[in-house]
Write a structure and sequence with these properties.
The protein contains seven helices and two strands; from the N terminus they run αααβααααβ. By secondary structure, it is mainly alpha-helical. The protein has one domain. Strands 1-2 form a two-stranded antiparallel ribbon. Helix 1 crosses helix 2, helix 2 packs across helix 4 and helix 4 packs antiparallel against helix 6. The longest helix is centred in the first third of the chain and has 29 residues. The protein is globular and about 55 Å long. The two termini are 29 Å apart.
């Protein structure tokens, strides 16, 4: 439900383009986090437990990026570029609980993607697994085409809105 004072929802195309831009920024965040991890613990490639540690470090870096941006201004760099802000139903800034829930829901949708693609790479007859994972990943974003207020599934579940930011003249 959009608040009574009518926050204008951001257009779907702007949100999807912003998602692609944020993905590029996340690649840089993951790259830098991986370099820092390698500087501190150089033998990651030889140890399975250290690989899990690296993965958890990457997840915490990505969470830290989003949490810091959304707590400070409700916007990541990509969201600032495309004039989109993440707010609560009341139009307020998010708290850590909402940020964490939103992050976890997106993570649940994204985590099966890489293992499924790797599985299909080594088992060409089982490509349907990667297709299923891609559909699972895309579903929260495709939900916006079914939702009456055009919200992504994770925003609907957490009670957040991606709204258009008015430019100051």
């Amino acid at each position: 439900m959009i608040p009574s004072y009518e926050l204008k929802p951001a257009a779907r195309w702007r949100r999807l383009v912003c998602l692609v831009y944020d993905s590029l920024l996340l690649a840089a965040v993951i790259f830098v986090a991986g370099m820092l991890f390698q500087l501190v613990i150089p033998a990651v490639s030889q140890s399975q437990p250290l690989r899990y540690g690296l993965f958890l470090f990457w997840l915490s870096a990505v969470y830290g990026y989003f949490a810091r941006c959304w707590i400070r201004s409700g916007q990541t760099l990509a969201m600032k570029t495309w004039r989109i802000r993440l707010v609560t139903q009341e139009g307020c800034m998010l708290g850590f609980r909402q940020i964490t829930y939103r992050f976890l829901i997106v993570l649940i949708a994204a985590l099966p993607l890489l293992p499924a693609v790797m599985w299909a790479k080594h088992n060409p007859a089982e490509r349907w697994v990667s297709w299923l994972a891609m559909i699972w990943f895309a579903f929260p974003y495709l939900w916006a085409f079914l939702d009456k207020e055009k919200q992504f599934l994770h925003d609907r579940l957490v009670g957040t809105y991606l709204v258009a930011v008015e430019t100051k003249a």
